[in-house]
Amino acid sequence: MKQNIAIIGGGASSLLASIILAKRNFTVEVFEKNPKAGKKLQATGNGKCNITNKNLSLEHFFSNNPSFIKYPITTFGFREFNKFCDEIGLNLVTNENGKTYPASLQASSVVEILYENALFYGVKFNFDSFITDLKFDERIDKFELKTQNGIKKFNKVIIATGSKAMAKLGSSDSGYTLAKQFLHTIIEPLPALVQLTSNNLDIHQLSGVKTEATVTLYINNKATKTVFGDLLFTNYGVSGNTILDLSREVNIALESRFGVDILVDIFPSLDKNKLISLLENKIKNLKDRKIEFLFLSLINTKLIEFIKKKSKISPHKQTLGELDKKDILNIVYALKSIKINIEGSKGFEFGEVVCGGICVDEVETKTMESKKQKGLYFCGEVLDVDGACGGYNLHWAWASAFVLATNMK
Ligand SMILES: Cc1cc2nc3c(=O)[nH]c(=O)nc-3n(C[C@H](O)[C@H](O)[C@H](O)COP(=O)(O)OP(=O)(O)OC[C@H]3O[C@@H](n4cnc5c(N)ncnc54)[C@H](O)[C@@H]3O)c2cc1C
Q1: Global pTM value
Q2: 346-355 per-position pLDDT tens digit
Q3: Domain end position, chosen among 295, 318, 346
């Protein structure tokens, strides 16, 4: 007789797993608390869905047990994902940074293709179906799932409930509660890929300014990580790709009550000496111009007053010719080292993912089966695995679902 499988959650990882399992002749039933499948998937990549990344090295994925990630990511890499997409009719485009999207640039088309394929292979979907109770009955060797239509029995159950990041998209942390019923350990979930807050009022006044920058994270005054990319100043603190990528380390440090600062270099393309020469040259040619002229076309105009103030140029100096060597060194310092104290983050409500989740030491890396309960499986973000910005979180959802569904006996 065919084995029947319940998948709790109808998001990214669930849809991929359901297609493969149904093709392998399992009877698959999905329980999704929203009225439709893939609500979060539909919001990904600003509606364009950064579905994966061509540069899929392990350094882009994080977990308390990094060795757990290796098998799924190397088994189901970029090439294998492309092959799967070919099979289901999903066309992809990759940009120069390796970021990959559906050719339509519409996340909704990804949801539709996955959902239609699942239906085609016979997956049954139950919507508006929030699962809160799951038990294993040893006498009959089956799971009992409490649904709105009463208790249903299954040979196997997959928890694919995602995380509580951005709960307005319908996600929840109920996967952790269900896993705890089988004595799984939960690594404290914290928001990641999230904007950071600062009470530095000078920074709030720069709200709306976007610039390229190198950002170095300092934890207890020790430099721990440097990233390069976009930085956006906001009326609560900072955002942009650089900040999202640092946010997991920031939240882990803040949770331990460590001091957190970032040091921003808004002129990363030139080192200190080259920047000094550039400024000296400009001053030499434009001696009689007002001081603001030094910054025009060099930095975002909205940053000029801030940098002038930070450089402590005497208000009596009006023209570029009046600036001395000390002023130039101060300007270079202001451009290359804006220190911002970080108080916190915008939290789960704004985080794209969480770091933490079900402890992967208690899960088999080749099958995603629980080591605590035979027949119970996990995939996607509910596990203690998260990725950097750039398509890595969805790739984790795909890869974990693929190895689960391909290796299930
Ligand atoms: C705004 C935003 C943009 C993002 N953009 C990108 C991007 O461009 N690229 C990228 O790689 N990642 C992106 N991510 C992250 C990515 O969306 C997630 O990592 C991914 O969707 C996780 O897949 P999943 O299957 O684990 O969970 P989900 O896709 O969240 O699916 C889980 C599903 O389970 C359902 N559910 C939860 N609990 C229950 C329950 N008890 N009973 C029934 N159903 C339940 C939820 O309603 C949900 O539909 C983004 C996230 C957000 C919030």
Answers
A1: 0.95
A2: 999 999 999 9
A3: 346
Q: Is the CB of 166 under 6 A from ligand 1?
A: yes
160 lines ligand 1 (CB under 6 A): yes
203-209-214 Cα angle (round to 5): 80
Tell me the pLDDT tens digit for each residue of 338-397. Answer: 999 999 999 999 999 999 999 999 999 999 999 999 999 999 999 999 999 999 999 999
**Is residue 171 predicted with pLDDT exceeding 90?**
no
Q: Is the CB of 10 under 6 A from ligand 1?
A: yes
Pair (50, 124) in one structural domain: yes
Residue 147 amino acid letter: T
* Backbone phi and psi for residue 65, each to the nearest 5 degrees, phi listed first: -130, 85
* Cα 292 to ligand 1 centre (Å): 47
Mutate to test the pocket of ligand 1, among 62, 133, 161 (most ligand atoms within 8 A of CB): 161
Q: Identify the pLDDT of residue 170.
A: 77
Where does a domain end: 306, 326, 346?
346
Number of independent structural domains in the chain: 2
50 CA distance to ligand 1 middle (Å): 13
Structure-block tokens of residue 408: 């299930």
Rounded to whole angstroms, the Cα distance separating 160 from 325 reads 61
Closest approach atom of ligand 1 to CA 379: 26
pLDDT tens digits, one per residue of 14-35:
999 999 999 999 999 999 999 9
Dihedral angle at the C-alpha atoms of 384, 355, 214, 49, nearest 10 degrees?
80
